[in-house]
Amino acid sequence: MATTTQTQRSAAAKRAAATRSTAAKRRSAAAKRAAATREVNQRSPVEQVQYAAERAVLIPVGAAALLDNISPDDLPAGIAGNWTNLREALRTLIQLKTQTITAFNK
């Protein structure tokens, strides 16, 4: 029968602890994503529009003309990969802001 030395047990314990830690981090991240999803799903349509309007207020209407002038190469690495989606989201928010301003000025 093979015997296990103290060093082998210690190394195995360290690997097991690292595995548990990694699994706990993964569970925590999943729980945070689930909580965010639940929060978004619990918003009423009115609350969703209010949320979009709050974000749109932060973007100047004149920024729409500048979106096409920005290339992904000019942006930091984390944003460059998602620039197409981000640009379209910004356009949508600017359109919502413009429509909101127009609706309230009638």
Structure notes:
This protein is mainly α and 106 residues long. The chain has five helices and no strands. Helix 2 packs across helix 5 (83-104).
> What helical percentage do the residues reach?
over 70%
Number of structural units classed as domains = 2
Give the oligomeric state of the chains in this entry, treating copies of one chain as homo and distinct chains as hetero. Answer: single chain
Strand content: under 5%
Coarse morphology: elongated
If you average the pLDDT, what whole number results? 80
How is the main sheet built? none
Q: Which ranges are low-confidence, i.e. pLDDT below 50, for 5 or more consecutive residues?
A: none
Alpha-carbon Rg, integer: 24 Å
Summarize the structure.
This protein is mainly alpha-helical and 106 residues long.
Structural topology:
Blueprint: H1 6-41, H2 45-57, H3 64-67, H4 77-80, H5 83-104
Quickly list its features.
106 residues; mainly alpha; 2 domains; 5 helices
